[in-house]
Amino acid sequence: MSSAVAVPQHKLSETPNSRTIEINDWVIIASTNPISSASECDALQASLGFPLPEMTFGSNYLSLEHQSSGWKMMFDTHNALKCVKKGELGEGDGGVKVGYADAWLKSRTDPGTNLPLPVTVAAKHYDWTYTMTYPGHHSDSAPDIQSPSPSIQWTDANEDNPSHSIPLSELTRPDPILFYAEIPLFEDELHDNGSSNLLVRIRVMPTCIFILSRFTLRVDNVLFRTHDTRIYHSFASRPSLVVRQLSGWEAPYDGVKRRLPSRNDLTPLTDANFIAKVLTELPVTESQQTGARTGWRGLRTKVETVILAKDEP
């Protein structure tokens, strides 16, 4: 067993709706608030141009700032929902229909049926599953902008450089947790056809910062989909380095269901951790290449890094 890890000097503070840690030149704030009010939802929906998830936590956010470089990254509800596709879904968007959609449509378009076609009205098109590959954003840029300034940019990781990966051995050590927060951004039951949610978690340990932002989608009898954004920073890194790993997986509903511990207990299918475990344990050819045959562009694993300060004492 390794010797005890030294705990660096740090400062904790909190308000009724937020908690802050200041440690090693970093200031990290996690803000958790009640579900947005009707007026807040109206304003956000008007800004986005499509219906909001049933449970929208519009005031929740996570921010982390590296003070010496001025580098700042955030996760919040508004910018996350900006990543939902508006308009008609096209190739790569991973569009999903509910399990009974094909049968419903056939019953109303089969030349031999006597059932009348439904009366339809113009609708605002958007991805009703709220699928996204939100990687977090910089406070002075949109979510799809990769850098807060020309001098600090995300670049592809070097596979041969051990510091350009996230060390699972360090994250699984029983080190003290100096700061922990769970920040829900939204959740929706998809008109009783499943579930879609985005949850951000952070923990700060004596040696590092680790963030997991996880989007989880379940469409009953159709598919499961997960997109993870992992962010890792070692306080010992020289130069100061942040690693970001973006990963997406999906599989047909029945493929995940077959891996239930008990055939008679479907409860794990509502557990984002169980879903992610199954998807990540499947062969890459199934979960990141074939997937659920939606052609979703989020099926991948990409690792990138950003250097915050090249000259440190």
Q: In short, what is this structure?
A:
By secondary structure, the protein is an alpha+beta fold.
Written account of the structure:
This protein has an eight-stranded antiparallel sheet. Strands 1-2-3-5-6-7 form a six-stranded antiparallel sheet. The protein starts with 9 loop residues before the first strand and ends with a strand. The longest helix has 11 residues, at 38-48. It contains seven helices and 14 strands. β9 and β10 (194-204) form a beta hairpin. The protein has helices spanning 38-48, 77-81, 101-109, 168-171, 253-257, 272-281, 284-290; strands at residues 10-15, 18-23, 26-31, 55-56, 61-66, 71-76, 137-138, 155-156, 179-188, 194-204, 208-219, 223-234, 240-252, 300-309.
> Which H/E pattern describes the elements?
EEEHEEEHHEEHEEEEEHHHE
> What class, by secondary structure content?
alpha+beta
Helix content: 10-25%
- Give the radius of gyration: 21 Å
Q: The biggest beta sheet, please?
A: 8 strands, antiparallel
Oligomer: single chain
Instruction: Give the overall pLDDT as a whole number.
Output: 89
The DSSP helix count reads 7
Uncertain segments of ≥5 residues (pLDDT<50)?
117-124, 144-150
Shape: globular
As laid out across the biggest beta sheet, the strand order is 4-9-10-11-12-13-14-8
Q: Give the strand tally.
A: 14
Into which percentage range does the β-strand content fall?
A: 25-35%
First-to-last CA distance: 31 Å
